[in-house]
Design brief:
alpha/beta, Aspartate Aminotransferase, domain 1, seven-stranded mixed sheet, four-stranded antiparallel sheet, binds pyridoxal-5'-phosphate
Length: 415
């Protein structure tokens, strides 16, 4: 047990011991997939081992599977400040966005507003609507997303023509800007548009109270900032909206009772669940959420990660030749930047191995992106900044090649 009074540096060391992937390199890509706590992996392994021995088919195992799913919903609700009845389990952010977007009563010629920075996970469902039904998809230009008034103004002006929905990310996966989604929800309510939020880069990363946010639906991944397994996610749906909506996709997961003449959908968000889940992943997802809530501390982890991200952005911005793309001061846990004279792909190929770091490039905006978590240390960020500084002093043509050390049997480099 980690005593809550432990100073930060000791607490981080102790937590990193429990997240083995932090030892495999500098882990700066939770924006794609977070590192899994050993405890969650153990819980998944135990469930898998049990299934191998006792099977998965005995009817008396079903109530337990349902209880585990309920535990996962409640654990999401605890981190995201929501009522568990408003949470559905999904397989991913994209899955949750599709479930809601496809369930709106679209008609050919309807209009949907989104931003010019959406991930294919949020854009995909809209482009499919455009192809299938002729829905008009309009990308509202929010700049880099860093000016909340500009974002709200741009949507307000686009809403002068009616739209059925607003689909926007809470944190842009490109620039890392935090959008004023509560204010977009307000615009949506005033104009009769449903507001659907992509929470892929916000859920677990920054404080979010879904109960109070004022949007209609919010889709989240398990595998990123909530440190869960892949294949799990969650969807929050405002109660009244959920209960007024018949899901486009439905199955035994959606219904409380299958009376043929008068079927009853689950109340609340659960009607957006369709079928079953990989039980070890449900268990692992719940365990990661529980671990973050009970062991790490959600406010602590979010405050630390945003503070480190801010410091890193300021540090990178001070390096000659480096441009930080993330609007300052950084509000989330993503920091995107460019190095003059380098494409992002070229810079990634040098920075990642030289710093022994896992990060990514963003071809869409030609930038590198760091995802900074509570497990990240100041020393790791110093190392990355030093490597960026070194690379930025050169061009791809002048950068001295990396020396690859070959170690002899005595552990010393052989020239
Ligand atoms: C903003 C955003 N939306 C959606 C996704 C896709 O998430 P998922 O794999 O959970 O569907 C990502 C990242 O992969 C993302 O950054």
């Amino acid at each position: 047990m980690i005593p809550p009074s432990l100073p930060d540096a000791e607490k981080v060391d102790a937590l990193r011991e429990l997240i083995p992937a932090t030892r495999a390199g500098i882990y700066l890509n939770a924006g794609t997939c977070g590192p899994i706590p050993a405890e969650s992996q153990r819980a998944m392994d135990e469930q898998t081992a049990r299934e191998l021995v006792v099977g998965r088919a005995a009817p008396d195992l079903w109530p337990e599977a349902l209880a585990r799913a309920e535990e996962a919903r409640a654990s999401v609700a605890a981190v995201m400040v929501a009522d568990p009845a408003d949470i559905a389990l999904t397989h991913s952010t994209t899955d949750g966005l599709n479930a809601v977007i496809a369930s709106l009563p679209w008609r050919p010629g309807d209009r949907v507003l989104t931003t010019n920075h959406e991930h294919p996970g949020g854009l995909g469902p809209l482009l499919a609507l455009r192809e299938r039904l002729g829905v008009e998809v309009e990308r509202v230009d929010v700049g880099d997303g860093g000016d909340p008034d500009r974002v709200v103004g741009a949507f307000a002006s686009a809403l002068q023509r009616p739209a059925r929905a607003i689909v926007a990310s809470h944190v842009l996966w490109t620039t890392g800007a935090v959008l004023p989604v509560g204010r977009l929800g307000e615009l949506g309510r005033e104009s009769g548009a449903i507001t659907v939020i992509d929470g892929a880069q916000s859920a677990g990363a920054i404080p979010v109270a879904l109960d109070e946010l004022g949007v209609d639906a919010y889709a989240m991944p398990g595998q990123k900032w909530l440190l869960g397994p892949e294949g799990m996610g969650a969807l929050w749906v405002r109660r009244q909206f959920a209960e007024a909506t018949v899901p486009a996709l439905a199955g035994y997961g959606s219904y409380a009772a299958f009376e043929f003449e008068a079927p009853r959908l689950h109340p609340g968000a659960r009607r957006f669940e369709v079928a079953g889940f990989h039980r070890p992943s449900v268990v692992g997802f719940a365990r990661s959420l529980g671990w973050l809530t009970m062991y790490v501390g959600v406010p602590w982890m979010q405050e630390r990660a945003v503070r480190l991200a801010r410091g890193t952005a300021d540090r990178l911005a001070a390096i000659p030749g480096v441009t930080v793309v993330t609007p300052l001061p950084v509000q989330g846990t993503l920091v995107s930047f460019r190095i003059r004279g380098w494409t992002a792909a070229q810079a990634l190929a040098e920075v990642a191995p030289r710093a022994m770091a896992v990060l990514r490039d963003l071809p869409a905006i030609d930038a590198l992106r760091l995802s900074i978590g509570f497990w990240t240390t100041e020393a790791e960020l110093d190392r990355v900044a030093a490597v960026v500084e070194h690379v930025a002093r050169h061009t791809p043509e002048t950068l001295p090649p990396r020396r690859i050390a070959v170690l002899g049997s005595d552990g010393r480099p052989i020239d």
